TrEMBL record:
Organism: Haloarchaeobius litoreus
Protein name: Replication factor C small subunit
Record-linked SUPFAM superfamilies: P-loop containing nucleoside triphosphate hydrolases, post-AAA+ oligomerization domain-like
Family the UniProt entry places it in: Belongs to the activator 1 small subunits family. RfcS subfamily.
Gene name in the database record: rfcS
Keywords, in A-Z order: ATP-binding, DNA replication, Nucleotide-binding
Length: 326
């Protein structure tokens, strides 16, 4: 890295947000979804793009793939032919009636169709989705829609049936680790393999989270290591979560509660994050089948109560207590 970049006098390095700096510029640069990208590339090469729906969790490449499609088709003109709307911010029927229809109607030259990208489309109201269905039919000769959502079940069936649906799964650990190493090399960041493993664990298949954590950890010391990553991401080590659950299952509620208190009070972890980490690691605790089933049953109950507004600490302590009593 140049001295200008390191001191913030240049345009690169620490002064840039890495998730934007390393956003794919084409389909070849989208990592972790080779099968999906191969099918989409066939559409692009044949210049026969249908309406598309991308469903999957955050940070797995849905928006990156959508923008890459536009760049592949339109080249430098992609911004003029690609309308991006966040449906969670603009979720009413007026958006469909006004902005989308105006863009679809507007004249343009050189291309057979333009692309409208609706991010978080599952946040659209039912009325807006009904209006969108008709709009997709009305302007199908010169407009293609790409809908991105976390839950395809929230999209009405008439829209789903008009789209080619692609389901994006969480990125593999190998794909996340490879991209982390690539960016660290490009930025001249020293790292340890334990640090990479920690970034992969904290990201849990979310590339955006991994890259943001790498950028934050890179300014904390000489090298990105395991300790720095867990501190930056407010993530408990897997062995800490395992020790807490094991103490509870062994009947030592006091020890389990002390470990929980440390995670919440001293480390600042949210209750929902602790629930997620326990769930992710449940089958790695080497528990017998009955104990694992009991843990997951109690975990589901605590998660439901927390999401409906119950006190996180009380519910987590109740979870540990119920494990310790049986």
């Amino acid at each position: 890295m140049s001295e200008a970049d390191a001191t913030g006098d240049g345009t690169g390095g620490r002064k840039q947000v890495w998730i934007e700096k390393y956003r794919p510029d084409g389909l070849d640069e989208v990592v972790g979804h080779e099968d999906i990208i191969g099918r989409i590339r066939s559409y692009v090469e044949q210049d026969d793009i249908p309406h598309l729906m991308f469903a999957g969790p955050a940070g797995v490449g849905k928006t990156a793939t959508s923008v890459s499609i536009a760049k592949e088709i339109y080249g430098d003109d992609w911004r003029e032919n690609f309308l991006e709307l966040n449906a969670s911010d603009q979720r009413g029927i007026d958006v469909v009636r006004d902005r989308i229809k105006n863009f679809a109607r507007s004249s343009f030259g050189g291309y057979d169709y333009r692309i409208i990208f609706l991010d978080e489309a599952d946040a659209l109201t039912s009325d807006a989705q009904s209006a969108l269905r008709r709009t997709m039919e009305q302007f199908s000769n010169n407009t293609r829609f790409i809908l991105s959502c976390n839950y395809s079940s929230k999209i009405i069936d008439p829209i789903q049936s008009r789209c080619a649906v692609f389901r994006f799964s969480p990125l593999s650990d190998e794909a996340v680790a490879e991209q982390v190493r690539y960016i660290a090399g490009e930025e001249g960041i020293e790292y340890t393999e334990d640090g990479v493993d920690a970034l992969v664990y904290a990201a849990d298949g979310d590339m955006r989270k991994a890259i943001n954590a790498l950028q934050a950890a890179s300014v904390m010391g000489d090298a990105v290591d395991e300790e720095t990553v867990y501190a930056i991401t407010s993530t408990a080590r897997p062995e800490e979560v395992e020790a807490m659950v094991t103490d509870a299952l062994d009947g030592d509620f006091v020890a389990a509660r002390a470990k929980l208190d440390e995670l919440i009070t001293e480390r600042g972890l949210a209750g929902g994050d602790i629930i997620d980490q326990i769930h992710r690691s449940a089958w790695e605790f080497e528990l017998d089948e009955q104990a694992a089933v009991r843990l997951l049953d109690r975990l589901g109950e605590a998660d439901y109560r927390i999401t409906t507004g119950a006190n996180e600490r009380v519910q987590l302590e109740a979870l540990l207590a119920s494990l310790a009593l049986e």
